[in-house]
Write a structure and sequence with these properties.
By secondary structure, this protein is an alpha/beta fold. The chain has seven helices and twelve strands. This is 3'(2'),5'-bisphosphate nucleotidase CysQ.
């Protein structure tokens, strides 16, 4: 019996994560070379597995040359073998594996592995959200926090939590470790497809920074901005963003 899309996404994310940990723990490569070796090794597994398991679907991977033939497909797997390559190479925990499935442009199925924490979060098995904090915590890039996110954090008197990969930040909201993830520094479809599917399934707000929908499987894979947050903070974040652009 073939696996469901959710089971396949979770199995691929978990398996790739284990391989990445093995590569890192081998001690044979380090730093930037470790990141490159991990990316290439995980990508080979994921691409071959998806082409075998879902031969009729399109595929977009950060580590593969883009094939615009995917635009003819309603179903397109959008993957990031290592989200947070720098953090992976630095032997930190805030990196992730993203396996997302876009259906008609919507991030519909997703699994995000946090291998260093031995955790896989998935869209088809949502858990109740933990209670939120009264003073919002906002995850931001640990190396280049966007000025808009910093301004919104100041408006909301939010606590800043610097963190690595986009997947790690998004899953911090799902796991109840923060309330708001606002990114305005530009990303690509593979940075957010799986995390958005998982976050939406858990009842979180997901959109562009202006509140408009996120659309995937586009010819241009660049995505300028992203908002993932608990519903009770959505309107305040969007109002603060509008005040910056008015």
């Amino acid at each position: 019996m073939s696996m469901t899309d959710g089971d396949l996404a979770a199995h691929l994310a978990h398996t790739a994560g284990r391989i990445l940990l093995d590569v890192r723990q081998s001690g044979l490569v380090s730093g930037a070379s470790l990141g490159k070796a991990g990316d290439q090794t995980a990508n080979q597994l994921l691409v071959h597995a998806l082409r075998q398991q879902r031969p009729d679907d399109g595929l977009l991977s950060e580590e593969e040359k883009d094939n615009l033939e995917r635009l003819a497909h309603r179903r397109v797997w959008i993957i990031d073998p290592v989200d947070g390559t720098r953090e992976y190479g630095e032997e930190r925990a805030d990196w992730a594996v993203h396996i997302g499935l876009s259906i008609d442009g919507v991030a519909s199925i997703g699994a995000v592995a946090l291998p260093a924490l031995d955790v896989v979060l998935r869209s088809d098995r949502p858990q109740p959200l933990p209670p939120g904090a009264p003073i919002p915590r906002m995850v931001v890039s640990r190396t280049r926090p966007a000025k808009e996110a910093l301004a919104v954090a100041e408006t909301l008197a939010a606590e800043l939590l610097p963190m690595g990969s986009a997947g790690a930040k998004a899953m911090a909201i799902v796991r109840g470790e923060a309330e708001i993830y606002l990114h305005t520094g530009g990303q690509f479809e593979w940075d957010s497809c799986a995390p958005v599917a998982v976050a939406a399934a858990h009842g979180l707000h997901v959109s562009r920074a202006d509140g408009t929908p996120l659309v995937y499987n586009q010819a241009d894979t660049y995505m300028p901005d992203l908002l993932i947050c608990r519903p009770e903070w959505t309107e305040r974040v969007l109002m603060a963003m509008r005040a910056l652009t008015d």
